[in-house]
Fold these 2 entries.
Entry 1:
Amino acid sequence: MKNKGSLFDGFNYIFLTLVGCLMVFPLLHVLAKSFSSSQAINAGKVKLIPVDWTLTNYHVILGDSSIWRAFMVSVFITVVGTLINLILTASLAYPLSRPEYSMRKVVLIFILITMIFQAPLIPNYMVIKNLHLIDSLWALIIPSAISAYNLFIMRSFFVALPSELIDSARIDGAGELRTMWSVILPLSKPAMATMGLFYAVSHWNSYSSALYFINNRALYPLQLRLREIVLSNDLGQAGNLLENVNQISPAGVQMAVIVVSVVPIIIVYPFLQKYFIKGMLIGSIKA
């Protein structure tokens, strides 16, 4: 039995290593192109290692004010949106985790229905329009204030907390808000970090909502600006440089923008990894 287990573990290691390599190769290709010259890219010489190393592509995008503006818009949406997400999700998950609160099962059923049946685009657009949120960054934050999936994970974490701690806080005279702020949230760092990472990645990568609700190009987030560059070679100020500097490749600029858009999440993840793994394990053990 031990030999079979060791063989199975070895097969898993090999399989997961191959899957990991398959996922890393496209990233290496994008990174290599972003640091390669236009001649090497146009000749198809770039695979996984940069050819004719250059920083020209990054000079182009870092000198484009529209990309910096889009970057700051994405930062605002991600930071403010994630804070609102965490506050509202925790505020709803806590009462739904307590057995003494009536109607919690009915509310959970309605929330579950929203996961199965989602409103189509046109009703969503009409709601946003009637709320006068068209061409407003709040249109990218408020409609996604609470994710039903994340709510269930956070509720599972709250259910797993010892009820004796909550009873002790109530005996000491703490109200529900004080109990949640002083007892529940300090113990919920793994769950909050997990949900925060989920929400932040969702906000950072989202472009469809901006595509539907934002017409003002000054309010475009980074992903929508990236979409313009990838689909139409709209390089903004870089397009003016292309007429005079033949070392610049549209494909290289596109890859450089992709790298810039991915780097912030890669930087944040290592700091949350410990809490992220713990939060996912706790949320998966008890529902």
Entry 2:
Amino acid sequence: MNLDVVSHYIQVFGYIVILIILFCGIVGIPAPEESFLVLLGIFVSKHQLHLTKSMLYAFGGVFLGMMVAYVIGYYVGTPFLYKYGKYIGFSKPRMQKAEKQFNKYGIWAIFFGFYIPGIRQLSPYFAGISRYPIGMYTLVSFIGGAVWTVVFILIGYYVGDKFEVMYIGIGIGALVVIYLIWKSIRRSKQQKQREIEQTKE
């Protein structure tokens, strides 16, 4: 995404462009969300954008996208998504993988899914399809979305044009954290299963 093009659209149409781009990325319409957030941080560091406004509009787009995707999943269900998802880049294998991840990890797939392209876009739909409690979903989407947007905007703000190296580091760090949490959850489930089996004996 070209800096000059993004800057032009934001200057012409205002901060609402930030909200629209992030909203599109979350619901599945192709948009480079992480790169865009980092670019916003770069703009802020160069005094072309206001930090607070950029964060608020970015978070607004993310949170709105999460809620709309949930509602769509809730009301249209799996058959509709599998039939028409291909038109916005959701291939069947990709959806099956995301559905499996969500069914396995539940709300963790929402929170940490922000850092995994594909999971980030599809988990909200499957949360709605599975009728996941709206209160908990809203809370996790709010917190997870806020952390994700702020982190990547600040990467751009403090690292600037060197964001690619930092982005790789953040990505690796996020994967390590996700793996450790997954191992912890799996270990906990195995322990509970053993306790249940011992009780039956």
